Amino acid sequence: MTGGISRRTFLQLSVAATAALGAAGAVAAGDGRSYVSGGFAPGHVEPDTWTYSTCGFCGTGCGIEIGTKDGVPVAIRGTKGYPVNDGLLCAKGIYQWKIITAPDRGKRPLIRKDGKMVPATWDEALTAMTDKLKQLLADYGPESIACYNTGQLCMEEFYTLGKLMRAGFRTPNLDGNTRTCMASAVMGHIRSFGTDGPVGAYADIEAAEVILIAGSNMAECHPILFGRVVKAVEKGARLICVDPRLTQVSRIATINLPIRPGTDVVLLNAMAHVIIREGLIDRAYIDAHTTGYPELEQHLRKYTPQYAAGICGVPAEDIEAAALLYGRAERSLSMWVMGINQSVNGTIANNCFHNLNLIQGKIGKPGCASFSITGQPAAMASREVGGSSSYPGYRAIGNAQHRAEIAALWGVDPATLPDKSPSITEIIDAILEGRIKALWVICTNPLMSLPDQNRVRQALEKLELLVVQDAFETVDTAQYAHIFLPAALWAEKSGIMVNSERRLNLLKPAVKPPGEARTDFEIFLDVADRMGFGHLFPYRTTEECFEEIKRVTRGRPNDYSGATYARIEASKGLQWPIPDERSPGTPRLYADGRFNTPDGRAVLWAVDPIELPEVPDGEYPFNLNSGRVQEHYHTGTKTRKVPELNALVPTAYVELNPRDAEALGVQYGDRVCIESRRGQIEAKVVVTSQVAPGSCFVPMHFGEGPVNRLTVWAVDPFSKEPNYKQQAVRLRRV
């Protein structure tokens, strides 16, 4: 309970109040799910204008309309008939209009003078920034400069930033916080299918007979998608849940597999073993469309359910039952998120999901997919147009032919384009080693979101130039900034977002940015002009930029040639590839069985799990897991500005199993110190059987209890994604 009201009660009351206000309808499920259909938050002011847009939170990509009165945001409602959410919104979505008018919005640039941040003009701030960057380029070269961005800009901003950093500054040091959530999914797609890109569509949820959800508390992190899963289950679909933590997903599952943390690869290998043993494979598909099957079949022989049970900590008969349920269904769908990706085993676990579906020919068909769900509203756009670890059009950084193609399109010498792309953890290490002198942080909060906070803090303190570009001047990382640039939010700009099912949707500005704040697009172009790179950017609007993006992606896997702003809005989103103006879009990839590998075949990978970087021991006996709650998002920079949401989950807490709570002598509401080999935090105790004995869970949203002070500095060897889900800690009562 918080403030005399529980999370569940609050959400249900919100829905009831909305319905009483005449909303188009509401649903409040007994398991705590809560969505609002076509309504707005209680106590709203009736808008005089509604503006078409896209939700600015998770990668679900809900269609929304922003309500304004006299030019001021007063409400948000879901777009009725939009194919993703059909008017439904989660708690974060329906209250996000309150973020736009938060009092700590950045309204003017700031420059650090005599240790304090003081107001400056845009000319003063950008002159100081670009003068320092020019000096560093002259003294140390392009590799002394780095940029770390986000998954929450629009496509055109990602494209412009990538072009600025790689063709303008010529630095390889460009990465995004997408590295911390989706990099393992990206590498899994590339290794199995040849290029990145989720293969399925949300409509596969309704079409599937069996749904496997792993490493995802979808009810809290992607609640609209979970609502579609619930409806599918109510209509007869069977659900398999794989998660060490008991969640609302596990409560409605036909089979629940609460495996030990970090044992997903073993479980998936065992399921594939059973499917092969029982002859549930599609041999014709395997022979025609894959490589590596003989090696995989041989490799999986040791992965019996009995062998896996001893490692995973779940009964062998449950593993067998799950494999048979999945394998015998004509239409099976697997979905996963951060519980899979954020591990040293993230990439190979993704490959194991793809193996599971490829050996059954369950790719590119209705109700069949191995479907990685994205965490941020435009993380897909960043991946597609070169905002982080690739060149636009899914062109690989290390591929000389791809660099030559993009150089020709941009009119630059291919020899000047970087051929590598360091990850953010490598960038932090390079700062500590003195090789990187300047960091430009855009719409993200690395002090809170990267692992081993003390290490990151040391790096930020060492920089000669830290520029923080954000909508909020109070974002944690800004306390170390030399220059702060105030940026617009999603409701104040135009551009394209791309969701987990490859659906392009439009942002349209409903209000103007506050004070002197500018869109990220405008800031990037201004920096380019001041650095002497303006010739690289013949466009001045996002719509003009999208026309260039279409030329750059023509003929590539993510071909947008047939899309326009007007067509995207009229169609309520389009799924790429969209090769021409007659194309309705493409719901599923690889329906023809041809993949983006050199021989056109998908690759089956025979893999064993990688040893975890840290496991519980006598000194640190608990495994720490971290993640999100429905009310908050990422480091809380936005959602903690909403009183109705923050009142429900106002501070850090740790979930403990009743057995462990008793052993520690603590009860609900007591405070404990949680300590790892890297640091310690304090949090309130929540006693619950949702976590297994020997495990604990802490949300990631709270600066006053930053869980990433505890997390280990270790990454997946293929994707370089940090290992957030398994680290050893100890607890004591405060």
TrEMBL record:
Oxidoreductase: present as a keyword of the record? yes
Q: Which UniProt keywords apply?
A: 4Fe-4S, Iron, Iron-sulfur, Metal-binding, Molybdenum, Nitrate assimilation, Oxidoreductase, Signal
PROSITE patterns attached to this UniProt entry: 4FE4S_MOW_BIS_MGD (PS51669), MOLYBDOPTERIN_PROK_1 (PS00551), TAT (PS51318)
UniProt name for this protein? Nitrate reductase
Asked if the keyword Iron belongs to this entry, the reply reads: yes
Top-level division of the source organism's lineage = Bacteria
Q: Which organism is it from?
A: Symbiobacterium thermophilum (strain DSM 24528 / JCM 14929 / IAM 14863 / T)
Q: Which gene produces this protein?
A: narB
One Pfam entry for this protein is Molydop_binding
Signal sequence, start to end: 1-28
One GO MF term on file is: oxidoreductase activity
Q: Which GO terms describe its biological process?
A: nitrate assimilation
Cofactor(s) required, per the database record = [4Fe-4S] cluster; Mo-bis(molybdopterin guanine dinucleotide)
- Ranges for the 4Fe-4S Mo/W bis-MGD-type domain? 48-104
What InterPro entries does the annotation carry?
A: Asp_de-COase-like_dom_sf, CT_Nitrate-R-NapA-like, MoPterin_dinucl-bd_dom, Mopterin_OxRdtase, Mopterin_OxRdtase_4Fe-4S_dom, MopterinOxRdtase_cofactor_BS, Prok_molybdopt-oxidoreductase, TAT_signal
Q: Which Gene Ontology terms of cellular component type are present?
A: membrane
Q: Which family does it belong to?
A: Belongs to the prokaryotic molybdopterin-containing oxidoreductase family. NasA/NapA/NarB subfamily.
